[in-house]
């Protein structure tokens, strides 16, 4: 099934029509991807291409008896308390080069958990804590856009090109499916985008993934599924 527009939000406007609401799980770093393949809780496969950032509760598709909505999964966050504007400015300056999604509040900053960032904020004098939470109100940085190395003669990085290749491949597959089935979005379109979504990289010994970022024991990390690695 193709989900190409949002018809409402079950959190902002709870439905009363008796339809079964079925969640489609999203990680926080997937909410602004232009193209992706997802599977709903009832096993229905979707090609998601709504063209804007997806919010928790957004309705992505409906049938006669079901409503499919986005459920943004919670994750581990680093909560960094601050007690003055001077501390806030210093913290945000220090975090600025780490390409992190974040949420700034009057007395704290929240960022997705990863061990190097946790240790770094301790090193520069803050007292971070790990909490569980959602990503409402975050300034989202794409999981791998902008990462990698600059390509000479362009304003793009290897990470930018990798994302463009993934989206082009998804467009080609989904356009072929649409041509084969007309515009009846009730048809079930099945595509394996796993290789594009993850770059086909298996995790080597010692590597681990946290919030869409791969980490190595030497402190380096990758935002593009293991294509490129860097440290801060």
TrEMBL record:
GO cellular component, one term: cytoplasm
An example molecular function term from Gene Ontology annotations: nickel cation binding
Record InterPro entries: UreE (IPR012406), UreE_C_dom (IPR007864), UreE_N_sf (IPR036118)
Highest taxon in the source lineage: Bacteria
Region spans: Disordered: 178-232
Biased composition (Basic and acidic residues): 178-206, 215-232
Pfam families hit by this protein: UreE_C
Domain Urease accessory protein UreE C-terminal: 76-132
Keywords attached to this entry: Chaperone, Cytoplasm, Nickel
Locations listed in the record: Cytoplasm
BP term (GO), one: protein-containing complex assembly
Similarity-based family: Belongs to the UreE family.
Function, in words: Involved in urease metallocenter assembly. Binds nickel. Probably functions as a nickel donor during metallocenter assembly.
Name of the protein in its database record: Urease accessory protein UreE
């Amino acid at each position: 099934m193709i989900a190409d527009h949002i018809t409402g939000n079950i959190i902002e406007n709870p439905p009363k029509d008796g339809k079964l609401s079925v969640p489609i799980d999203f990680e926080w770093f997937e909410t602004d991807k232009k193209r992706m393949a997802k599977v709903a809780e009832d096993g229905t496969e979707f090609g998601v291409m709504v063209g804007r950032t997806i919010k928790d509760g957004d309705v992505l598709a409906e049938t006669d008896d079901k409503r499919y909505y986005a459920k943004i999964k919670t994750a581990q966050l680093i909560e960094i308390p601050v007690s003055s504007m001077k501390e806030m400015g210093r913290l945000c300056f220090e975090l600025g080069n780490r390409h992190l999604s974040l949420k700034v509040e009057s007395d704290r900053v929240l960022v997705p958990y990863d061990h190097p960032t946790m240790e770094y904020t301790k090193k520069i004098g803050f007292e971070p804590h790990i909490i569980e939470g959602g990503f409402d109100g975050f300034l989202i940085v794409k999981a791998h856009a902008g990462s990698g190395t600059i390509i000479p003669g362009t304003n793009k990085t290897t990470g930018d090109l990798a994302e463009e290749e993934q989206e082009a491949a998804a467009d080609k597959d989904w356009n072929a499916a649409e041509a084969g089935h007309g515009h009846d979005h009730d048809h079930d379109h099945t595509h394996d985008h796993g290789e594009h979504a993850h770059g086909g990289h298996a995790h080597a010994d010692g590597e681990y993934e946290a919030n869409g970022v791969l980490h190595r024991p030497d402190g380096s990390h990758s935002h593009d599924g293991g294509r490129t690695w860097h440290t801060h």
